[in-house]
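Re-running the complex after MR caught last week's input typo. The corrected sequence lines follow. Everything else is unchanged.
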Amino acid sequence: MTTRKVKTAILISGRGSNMVALVEAAQLETYPAEIVGVISNRPDAEGLEKARALNIPAFVIDHRHYASREAFEQDLHDKLVSLEAELVCCAGFMRVLTPWFVSRWKNRLLNIHPSLLPKFKGLKTHQRAIEAGDKETGCSVHWVTEELDAGAVILQKSVEIAPDDTAELLAARLLPVELSLYPEALKKVASKILAAH
Ligand code: GRF
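Corrected-run output:
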């Protein structure tokens, strides 16, 4: 008997280390989600080759080939539907999604953000945390809603900020934390979906 798993797609724009962590976690037989595909909006994203090396179908939908954000998102939406995705994980996906797309994937769209939300939404989170004199920062996996980085937090984890930290040092120290948090958060969400059916 095969156990049902929640079909999950991952959106990337670059390196893809969070994507790899999700794919590797999902290889575990008991993990409640399976990764059905990876989509990048950038043809040069390093993560594409990493996904293919892990036997995950990887696709490019290059936003620069579209006249509007909506046209790009329509193709993205259609690809996700063709993959039969039930959940979508943004993992270093650097396009802001419109309310049109977000509403179509309401309660099914997750993101990882490198701060302790609701602090430091948007970009340059580590630099801003250091400049604010904060003693800790972290990462959050949250639901994507129409407002940028404002959806409910699913899980978050903190790391200390050292007195001589730079944004680069902090990002490097936070990365392994992100790589364990995202699979944990997807597990939590997918388990709930399976339990509800
Ligand atoms: C991560 O730090 C994530 O929090 C941020 O972008 C980075 C993506 O890295 N949104 P990767 O592509 O998963 O390696």
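None of the earlier attempt is carried over here. The radius of gyration is 17 Å. The pocket of 5-O-phosphono-beta-D-ribofuranosylamine is lined by residues 12, 14-19, 91-92, 112-114, 139, 178 (CB under 6 Å).
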